[in-house]
Amino acid sequence: MFMGNKFNLRIMYSSEAGRMLFVSIILFIIFFAIIGYAFSYDLLLGRTLFGAFVAHSLGGRAAGIGLCIAFDINIYVTILYNMFLEVLIVCFSFSLFLFSFNNQYFRFGFLQKAIKNSERNARKYEEVISKYGWLGIFIFVMVPLPVTGPVVGSFIAYFLCFSLKRNFISVFSGTFIAIVLWSIFFKFLSEHITNIQGVFAVIAIVVGVYFLKHIRNWFSKNGFDG
C-alpha cells in the first residue's frame, strides 16, 4: 500500500532503500531463472532448490543447507546457492526495513510486523555488539542461534551507523563462514549416517515444532515481548 508520500520511481531509486529494493528485484529475477532452469533440467533438482529457498526463509540457513545435502546437491553448489539465498533475503529485508524505518512509500502489512520485530531484536543486541564493532557483527551473524541471522545483523549494523559497504561486508563474511561450516557438517553426516533423508526429515519436524512459536510471534503484533 502506498503511504502519504507520492510515489515517484526516480525519487525512490535515488534513496538507499529504493536502490536496495531494485537490487532485490534483480536477485529475485535471477532466482526464478535458476529455479526455472532447474525444473526444466531435472524435476527433483528444481524441487530441492525451491524447497531449500522455503526452508531457508522459514527455518534459516541450516534448514536450506541440510535439504540440499540430503538430496545430494554438490557441496560447492550448496554453498554458493545458499549464499545467494542469504544475499537475496538480506537485501530484500534490508530494503523493507529502510522503507519502514523511514516511513517511506509503503505499508507492508504482516511483513511490516516481521520487520518491526526484527528491529526490536536488533535493538536488544545493539549495545553489546557496539563494543566490538565489525567483529561483533561478524560473530553475531556466524553464531547458529534463532535470532542471530544476517537480517537482524544488518539491522544492528545500521543502528551502529555502519556504511552500507561495511555493513554488508561484515554480515556476508560471517554468513559465508557459517554456510561453509554447516555444509561441511551436513556433508559429514550424509557420509556417515544411512538413510540421511529420513534423519533430516525428523530433524526438520523437531526444529519446526520447536520454533513454531517463534515463527508465529515474528509476524504478530507484539513480537517477542512475551
Polypeptide structure, described:
The protein has 226 residues and is an all-alpha fold. The protein has one domain (9-218). The chain is 79% helix and 0% strand. It contains eleven helices and no strands. It has helices spanning 9-14, 16-41, 43-59, 61-70, 75-101, 110-130, 133-142, 150-159, 164-192, 196-210, 212-218. Helix 5 packs across helix 6 (110-130). The longest helix has 29 residues, at 164-192. It is globular. 33% of the residues are buried. The model is unreliable at 1-7 and 215-221 (pLDDT under 50).
Give the gist of this structure.
With 226 residues, this protein is an all-alpha fold.
Number of domains: 1
- Cα Rg: 18 Å
Main sheet, how many strands, which sense, barrel?
none
Spatial gap, N to C terminus: 29 Å
Low-confidence stretches: 1-7, 215-221
Number of helices: 11
Q: Kindly estimate the percentage of residues that lie in beta strands according to DSSP.
A: under 5%
Helix/strand/pairing category: mainly alpha
Helix content: over 70%
Question: Could you report the average pLDDT, rounded to the nearest whole number?
Answer: 76
How is this fold's topology laid out?
Blueprint: H1 9-14, H2 16-41, H3 43-59, H4 61-70, H5 75-101, H6 110-130, H7 133-142, H8 150-159, H9 164-192, H10 196-210, H11 212-218
Helix pairs in contact: 2-3, 2-5, 3-4, 3-5, 4-5, 4-9, 4-10, 5-6, 5-8, 5-9, 6-8, 7-8, 7-9, 8-9
